[in-house]
Amino acid sequence: MKTDTITKEYVKDTGVFADIFNFYIYGGRSMIQPGQLTERDTAKTALPYGADDAVIPVQRFRDVQKLYAAMTDGKATYILYGVENQTQIHYAMPVKNNLYDALEYAGQAEEAAKSHRRQKRPGDAPSAGEFLSGFWAGDRLIPSVTVTLFFGAEAWDGPLSLSDMMDVPDQNVCACMNDYKKHLIAPAQMADDEIMRFQSSMREILLFIKYSKDRAGLDRILQANEGRFRELERRAADVIEAVTKSGLKYEEGEEAVDMCQAIQEMRLEERRLGKKEGERIGREEGERIGREEGQEMQARETSKRLYAIGLDIGAIAPAVGRTAETVRGWLGLADDLSNR
Predict the structure, then answer these.
(1) Fewer CB atoms < 10 Å away: N or C end of the chain?
(2) Nearest alpha-carbon partner for 243 in 159, 177, 171, 151
(3) How far apart are CA 95 and CA 100, in angstroms?
């Protein structure tokens, strides 16, 4: 199964999804309950006008989006939460997320217009502005919040806003520009105690990813969180293996994975393979040395035979592929600079 499919299926879980936004918005407090989230179609279609008032269909796909519904002070509250999973740094992510949110709002406005066309407001007709826009004065959009979840061990060095993607020296122009800031969760740029605010297995995933290239650091967090790592849910272990490519081995069908044991077995396998590789390299090196020694002995004997039949050093050296000084040494003529 592909990495993006594994991460998407994991994040789609309402418990994990709620945990992500409870962390990002509420600092880890359980304000959003899984039961308040419902799956939403991630295909977004808006109808912007093109040249000559042509209608252009636009469609994009989010990774995961859910609708949050709750009662606040006796009133219904709705918020759209979306997660974009990234295993590689995306240097145009602010544009991508901005487009998703803009399409969301455009789609809501279009749906409002369709609704008003189907059912007119009782009592009075829409104003000229309401009729023109299709969006009435009392209509309200549902907020859309998008978080980028980075599954990489390296620091995110991509832009965090639209303004980061621009180079506008005129501050007067900058003041007139509408910016868009990207919301990012990236383990390499998070302190351990910050990651510990997650309540789901997202905590172990982010900790493991953060230290996946730091053996000592990984051992430390495994020991400090041994209880949770020894009973890690299978789908979280699948995410860890998919994004870190660590070579973890565990039984198919296990509901919980002992990550401490899996890592120990992985390292034993690495040592076993390393030993075999060392033995192979040793054999190849021994064979190489043997070949070189045999070639030198053959060159030495050939030099002696050629010298015995009267060839001078200048002719013998290129014939055996050695320097004149080497050939003189073999012939015992190192102190004799003459070429017979």
Answers:
(1) N
(2) 151
(3) 9
β-pairing verdict for 256-257 and 232-233? antiparallel
Indicate whether 282 pLDDT > 80: no
As a whole number of angstroms, the distance between CA 212 and CA 222 comes to 11
pTM: 0.74
Q: Kindly tell me the burial class for residue 232, based on how many C-beta atoms sit within 10 Å of its own C-beta (0-12, 13-18, 19 or more).
A: buried
In whole angstroms, give the CA distance from residue 221 to residue 187: 13
In degrees, rounded to 5, the angle at the alpha carbon of residue 192 between the alpha carbons of residues 190 and 195 is: 70
Q: Using alpha carbons, list the distances in angstroms from residue 267 to 94, 202, 216, 219.
A: 39, 24, 13, 12
Report strand pairing: 75-86 vs 144-150.
parallel
pLDDT by residue (tens digit) across 58-115?
555 678 999 898 877 777 889 999 999 999 999 999 999 999 999 889 888 888 888 8
Phi, psi at residue 310, to the nearest 5°? 110, 0
CA angle 48–50–55, rounded 5-degree value: 60
Contact between 80 and 65 (Cβ < 8 Å)? yes
Question: CA–CA separation, 20 vs 18, rounded Å?
Answer: 5
Domain boundaries, given as residue ranges, for the chain:
3-257, 273-331
Find the DSSP H helices in the chain. 3-12, 14-26, 93-118, 128-133, 171-176, 192-195, 202-210, 215-224, 226-229, 234-244, 259-308, 313-320, 324-331
